[in-house]
Design a protein that fits this description.
Pfam families: AP_endonuc_2 (PF01261)
Largest sheet: 9 strands, parallel
GO molecular function: isomerase activity
CATH superfamily: Divalent-metal-dependent TIM barrel enzymes
Radius of gyration: 17 Å
Structural class: alpha/beta
CATH class: Alpha Beta
Protein name: Xylose isomerase-like TIM barrel
Strand content: 5-15%
Keywords: Isomerase
Oligomer: single chain
């Protein structure tokens, strides 16, 4: 189980397969797919993000969860993160999330993907701090991900909430597509406290940025590109972030190929980008 720290020396970044890249797969199938494709780790979606996704028995000690744990053990893959927790106005942290956290701890996760779905950022901050307290009991860290179709739309808002939260067990998750579409820069990333960055999500995208929230949502969920296949400067982005943290490849693409083929292509792209980022650091 990988738990990065701000003091850790620079190491080769572990590369993880994110659920959205192969969203049709259940968690047990995802573990097998990630292992066969050659990833170092995997992320698992225990709570579906939309009603269009299959509803699976993925919270609690269900047969599916026990089988997923068996496959993680057999493959030796690291479980980088679990998703997705939404902080809403009506959220009650322990009531709503305790079983999810217990499941994640059983599977061996270290990070949680969290979205802010509450326009009251003071209340959202309080909920995030409460989640951080409870998650710490399970060895897990919540990471707030800004995205344009939530109530935390960009990096600046996310950073303000994490800073206000002031909790040592909270991270800020940078997603390459949202970072680029919000016109953020490597300088914005370099200004963040390194201890906030527990892992990072990468993909690529076309040069033209959508102009509506609906188009941003559609692109983010179904029409990204594999790393290195688009116009996002991933090398500069990665160069501004802590070197050793895991990279999660979240790249749902418009390509009707089997999950294993898409996963292998995603990994090839990620490795090429990481090699370029490493070369640039050595030349600097």
């Amino acid at each position: 189980m990988y738990r990065p720290t701000a003091e850790a020396p620079a190491v080769t970044r572990p590369i993880s397969l994110a659920p959205l890249t192969v969203v049709e797969l259940g968690p047990d199938e995802m573990v097998d797919c990630a292992a066969r494709a050659g990833f170092d780790g995997v992320g698992l979606r225990l709570i579906r993000a939309t009603e269009a996704e299959p509803l699976r028995p993925t919270v609690g000690m269900t047969p599916l969860i026990r089988e997923t744990r068996r496959r993680l053990d057999d493959t030796g893959l690291a479980l980088i993160d679990i998703e997705v927790l939404r902080l809403k106005p009506q959220t009650r942290i322990r009531r709503d999330f305790a079983a999810f956290l217990e499941t994640g701890a059983y599977l061996g996760a270290s990070q949680i993907l969290v979205t802010g779905n509450d326009p009251d950022h003071l209340r959202l901050t309080d909920h995030l701090a409460e989640l951080a307290d409870l998650a710490a009991d399970y060895g897990l860290t919540p990471n707030l991900e800004p995205m344009p179709w939530t109530d935390v739309v960009n990096l600046q808002q996310g950073a303000a909430i994490v800073e206000r939260c002031g909790h040592p067990n909270v991270g800020l998750l940078v997603d390459a597509l949202h970072y680029d579409r919000a016109m953020n820069t490597p300088a914005d990333l370099a200004a963040l406290p390194t201890e906030w960055i527990r892992y990072v999500q990468i993909c690529d995208g076309v040069a033209e940025r959508p102009t509506s929230v609906e188009a941003l949502r559609d692109q983010g969920r179904t029409a990204r590109l594999f790393p290195g296949a688009g116009n996002i400067d991933l090398v500069a982005m990665l160069g501004a972030l802590p070197q050793g943290v895991p990279v999660s490849v979240e790249a749902p693409v418009l390509w009707q190929a089997p999950a294993i083929e898409r996963s292998r292509a995603a990994l090839r792209g990620a490795r090429e980008v990481l090699d370029l980022a490493s070369d640039r650091r050595h030349l600097a």
